[in-house]
Amino acid sequence: MSRLTSLHLLDTDVVSTLSRPNPDPQVAEWFARAEPGTLAVSWSTVFELQFGVELARRGGSPHADTFERNLLGVLRNRRFRVLLPTVEAARQRARMFATPELRGFFAAKPDARKPRFGEDLTIAATAMSVGAVIVTMNSKDFLLIAGHFTLPGVLHPATGEWTVQPPSGSAAVPKSLRRSSELFATTHRTHRITAGRQSWIERAPACSEPAKS
């Protein structure tokens, strides 16, 4: 199986943050400084975001159309690869679903407001199948998964902290990203960006052609 090197898989919370008109400035700066061809999202993130759109629409929310425009902005952004399901990811996901300690990711409580589909497990399985570092602000859940499976690395984009260190010398982590201090040595600008309802990610500068795998 060919591996995608220098790849960072963005969790849904990171993509959602970047889709806002005024995202967390530290997350936005991390995104802006990432090397061309190193960013990806899982098909499961597309599912989660579209599911949120449909719930908002069925609930009569006036923001449903805005949420969908934000999602389309992500899908049109050439900085991302969208990783589709593969046999290896499916097998890894099955192993995770069969792990009793991880049932809480998909077995919703009776009084839960919305169902749980185990998308964190799907993202983790996808990352393992291609050797991608998981970029998330939800470190706690992925640390739990890492207690049972060897993840390629888990990075918090706003703090630069590694919840799960990548394997030493791993090709999954570009040299410019291996030391989080390199990303956060400069003072973060906290200016607000305003452009109507357009999401920040739609205004982010496009990179050159993604690196070929």
TrEMBL record:
<keyword id="KW-0460">Magnesium</keyword>
<dbReference type="InterPro" id="IPR029060">
    <property type="entry name" value="PIN-like_dom_sf"/>
</dbReference>
<keyword id="KW-0378">Hydrolase</keyword>
<keyword id="KW-0540">Nuclease</keyword>
<dbReference type="GO" id="GO:0016787">
    <property type="term" value="F:hydrolase activity"/>
</dbReference>
<comment type="similarity">
    <text>Belongs to the PINc/VapC protein family.</text>
</comment>
<keyword id="KW-1277">Toxin-antitoxin system</keyword>
<dbReference type="InterPro" id="IPR050556">
    <property type="entry name" value="Type_II_TA_system_RNase"/>
</dbReference>
<dbReference type="GO" id="GO:0046872">
    <property type="term" value="F:metal ion binding"/>
</dbReference>
<dbReference type="GO" id="GO:0004518">
    <property type="term" value="F:nuclease activity"/>
</dbReference>
<keyword id="KW-0479">Metal-binding</keyword>
<protein>
    <recommendedName>
        <fullName>PIN domain-containing protein</fullName>
    </recommendedName>
</protein>
